[in-house]
Amino acid sequence: MMLTGSLYIIFFVMVLTLIRAHKGPSFFDQVLAINVFGILIVLSLALVGFISKRPDFLDIALLYSLINFVGTVAVLKYFKYGSLSYPTKKDDNQDD
Predict the structure, then answer these.
(1) pLDDT in tens, the chain (96 residues)
(2) Phi then psi for 45, rounded to 5 degrees?
(3) Helix-helix angle 27-51:2-23, to 10 degrees
(4) Nearest to residue 78, comparing CAs of 27, 14, 10, 4?
(5) Which of 28, 29, 53, 87 is in Cβ range 3.0-4.6 Å of 24 for a Cys bridge?
(6) Are 3 and 51 in contact (CB under 8 A)?
(7) pTM reported for the whole predicted model
(8) Is there a contact between 33 and 20 (Cβ–Cβ < 8 Å)?
(9) How far apart are CA 87 and CA 20, in angstroms?
(10) Residues 36, 42, 44, 50, CA torsion sign
(11) Nearest-angstrom CA–CA distance, 84 and 58
(12) Buried b / exposed e across 46-79, counting CB within 10 Å, b at 16+?
């Protein structure tokens, strides 16, 4: 009973983070909200696995957390440098 109640709370917070991602004042706030949404998905997957007594969900949650992290870093790097390749010296000096 308490575990399912915590799932409802997680889903409510997911809705709030989606609203934040939609209304974020800057792009980086929106990326942070999507990252938090991914973390909440990982948490809910682990909780569902615990409730249903299936440890396979924890493996899926760990894999999803790695994808979430790499995706967030890739999106932020793309919007900072304009590509996902290694930045050149010319790209580093443009921030000044």
Answers:
(1) 788 899 999 999 999 999 999 998 998 899 999 999 999 999 999 999 999 999 899 999 999 999 999 999 999 888 888 887 776 666 555 554
(2) -65, -45
(3) 160
(4) 27
(5) 29
(6) yes
(7) 0.80
(8) yes
(9) 31
(10) negative
(11) 30
(12) bbbbeeeeeeebeeebeebbeebeeeeeeeeeee
| Structural tokens at position 26 | 């800057």
Residue-wise DSSP of the chain: -HHHHHHHHHHHHHHHHHHHHHH-SSHHHHHHHHHHHHHHHHHHHHHHHHHTT-THHHHHHHHHHHHHHHHHHHHHHHHHHSSSSPPPHHHHHTT-
Residue type, 95: D
Which residues lie closer than 8 Å to 3 by C-beta, 6 or more apart? 47, 50, 51
Which residue in the block uniquely carries the two structure tokens 């007594």?
53
**Tokens encoding 11:** 């889903």
